[in-house]
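Q: Start with the shorter request: fold the first protein.
A: Done. Sequence, then structure:
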Amino acid sequence: MFLFKLASFLKKDAKIFVSYKLSFLMTCIGMVVSVATFYYIAKLFGKSASTYLPSYNTDYFSFVLIGIAFSTYLTTSLSTFANHIREAQASGVLESMLVTPSSVAEIMIGMSIWDFVFTSFRIIIYLIIGIFFFGMQFNNPDILAGILILMLSVVCFSFIGIMSAGFILIFKRSEPVGWFIGGLTGLFSGVFFPIEVLPLKLQVISYFLPATYSLRALRHALLSGYSFKMLMPDISVLIVFSIVLLPLAVIIFKYTLKQVKIDGSLVHY
């Protein structure tokens, strides 16, 4: 039954998406431009950047392409739940959805499933462009380890995204968690440059962000030929983040949902 509901949500969102062909075309063009931009930045600064990349055994272009490709998954996990809750509030259907036989978890997963599917498509396109047009190189990649790391990363950031959705219920137009974590991730987690570039005092911030371990492990798995055993320290940290964030996300979302039901602001937007 749950899979049938997910399929219904997915079918609905896919139909909406394909009806906007220009939007899809512009998305693809934007991805090509983004990859090309970083390719030429890498050509300009690649040699100076290579001094910070010995542990990755790769060039700067491959390093940064993994960062921008897979960070789209992390930003999707951070924002999708809050965005869809906000859309449902603004369109006036949130209350109606919550009184259906479907659980809150089913509704939130269903509303967001297309975003994850499309993000997977975007990552594939990023990598295809990078490999076939700009010479991105992999070094004995461990695909299964990469998939596991990606799944753990999505879980971690989805729990933060659920907290954001809870705050959206109360604050309506904006919430602090997703914005704050997203900003820190872009600057301190090694999306665009190795964290070793940062001053030592600022590097400390990186160690409190799950994306730091996600991106480092993904790069080591796909670009550096690391074995699963060598990846275990970062994987273990992601598991700990997941264990800590799960109850926190559930508590915050349940509390905020209960509060807006009590004060009658669930349908306010």
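Q: Next, the second protein, separately.
A: Sequence, then structure:
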Amino acid sequence: MGDYLSVPDKNKHSEEGKDHRIAFGATTMQGWRKTQEDAHIARLDIGDGNSLFAVFDGHGGDQVAKYAEKTMVQELLKLQSYKDKDYKKSLEEVFLKIDELMLQHIRQNGSSGRSRFDDYSADPNDLSESGCTSNVILITKDKIYCANAGDSRAVMCVFGSGPETVELSHDHKPDNETEKQRIVNADGFVQMGRTNGVISLSRALGDFDYKKKADFPPEKQATTAFPDVSEIDLTENCQFIVQACDGIWDCLTSPEAVDKFGKMLEKKNMSEREIVESVLDEICAPDTMNGVGCDNMTCILINFKK
């Protein structure tokens, strides 16, 4: 079976919550994979009435994803830019800060960094081979920010003349021309849609084997943690957000996800958590013949209450 189990593990780890403006459901499921490398954050209030949601899709182990899950909020809150309410800058800074902290631990403890990372991961392998995507949504009183590095994705349903799909993030793939140019400039190459023929992402936390150009700043490395950050006004037309790892986006396009989740919300007979759990069950593949629907799956549904 290679990387797959003989039958999928459909046990789900879910959480839900709501306040005066948001109701959310978050679910993660191992699926067909032999290990679970995803992590996530769902916090209704991190202070000042701000909410934060994040999806981390790990590869090469779960260490980096788990570390980001445990440290993202606390490191964000420490930043002066966050305290100054420069939220775009603070999100850019916190992605790079997490990479910086991991590198410090590696240098202090050897290539594995095990003495520090055992706290976060059940599988403390060599950290230089581990990385994760990072898709973070910060919701303030009047804005929605989405910071993204990798191919986890967030889409929003906005009601205009009808339901419309708004991409809050865009996937970072090595064969994108802008990404490819950065990779080549850092003495890397793209082969079969992969950085140096190995990883299918051009931005990620961790993956330090692809961040070794000593005279280049972090944002210029072949694989960078530096995120794109979008900023959108939070208005009464904002309906809901679907935030998920590529295990979901391999099965659903962004418009398909908005349509599916929107129709289920309209029925008002399931909670946000139940909706996410139902969708994950639906798209989990019946077999591993083509690989679609066979990945770890993590999804957060953020519903703006009216």
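Q: Describe the second briefly.
A: The chain has one domain: 4-290+298-304. The CA atoms of residues 157 and 163 lie 6 Å apart.
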